[in-house]
């Protein structure tokens, strides 16, 4: 017998579904390659929206504990799914970076694969802050915004 989901759990699932649906709408309307940000400002705004959504999802400490604290060695299949999710996030980020290179608003010398792994690593690292009882929600938000600022100050042309 499965337990009923709390309002917060239902809202997080709904938010996730809304993000996925919005992405599908944009991809369907513009095509995958044209769905990327056209300017550095667009990309920064998009990154802040993503960081805010991820920060909201990461506010449920159970998710952080499961995904980042207990994945290795417990269940090999689950571990592989989490790593596949990380790899997918890296692939999407690399696509955004490639788009920025093609449009000319990112430095031409960046290694998009390595930079994508670093960006996703910052996102996961920020999520881990949720496990620290001395850091509150406002500090997590400030940290995720600082990560976005650091990212753009480091790769902007």
Describe this structure in words.
The longest helix is centred in the middle third of the chain and has 28 residues, at 76-103. The chain has a single domain (36-155), classed as Orthogonal Bundle (Tetracycline Repressor, domain 2). The model has no long low-confidence stretch (mean pLDDT 77). 74% of the residues lie in helices and 0% in strands. The protein has six helices and no strands. It has 157 residues and is mainly α.
Question: How is the topology of this model organized?
Answer:
Elements: H1 7-30, H2 40-58, H3 61-69, H4 76-103, H5 112-128, H6 137-155
Helix pairs in contact: 2-6, 4-5, 5-6
Name the features.
157 residues, mainly alpha, Tetracycline Repressor, domain 2, 6 helices, globular
Please summarize what this structure is.
The chain is mainly alpha-helical. 74% of the residues lie in helices and 0% in strands.
Second rung of CATH, namely the architecture: Orthogonal Bundle
Number of domains: 1
Approximately how much beta-strand content do the residues carry? under 5%
Low-confidence stretches: none
CATH topology: Tetracycline Repressor, domain 2
Q: What is the total tally of β strands?
A: 0
Structural class: mainly alpha
Class in CATH? Answer: Mainly Alpha
Principal-axis shape: globular
| Arithmetic mean of pLDDT | 77
Q: Biggest β-sheet, characterized?
A: none
CATH superfamily: Tetracycline Repressor, domain 2
One letter per element, helices H and strands E, the order comes to HHHHHH
Helicity, in percent? over 70%
Which value, in Å, is the CA radius of gyration?
17 Å
Could you tell me how far the N terminus lies from the C terminus, measured between alpha carbons in angstroms? 55 Å
Q: Count the DSSP helices.
A: 6
């Amino acid at each position: 017998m499965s337990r009923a989901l709390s309002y917060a759990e239902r809202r997080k699932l709904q938010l996730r579904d809304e993000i996925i649906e919005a992405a599908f709408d944009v991809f369907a309307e513009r095509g995958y390659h044209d769905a990327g940000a056209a300017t550095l400002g667009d990309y920064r705004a998009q990154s802040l929206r993503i960081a805010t959504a991820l920060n909201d999802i990461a506010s449920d400490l159970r998710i952080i504990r499961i995904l980042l604290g207990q994945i290795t060695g417990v269940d090999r299949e689950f571990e592989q799914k989490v790593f596949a999710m990380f790899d997918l996030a890296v692939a999407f980020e690399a696509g955004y970076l490639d788009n920025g290179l093609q449009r000319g608003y990112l430095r031409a010398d960046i290694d998009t694969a390595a930079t994508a792994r670093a960006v996703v690593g910052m996102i996961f690292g920020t999520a881990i802050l949720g496990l620290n009882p001395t850091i509150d929600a406002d500090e997590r938000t400030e940290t995720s915004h600082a990560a976005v600022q650091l990212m753009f100050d480091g790769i902007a042309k």
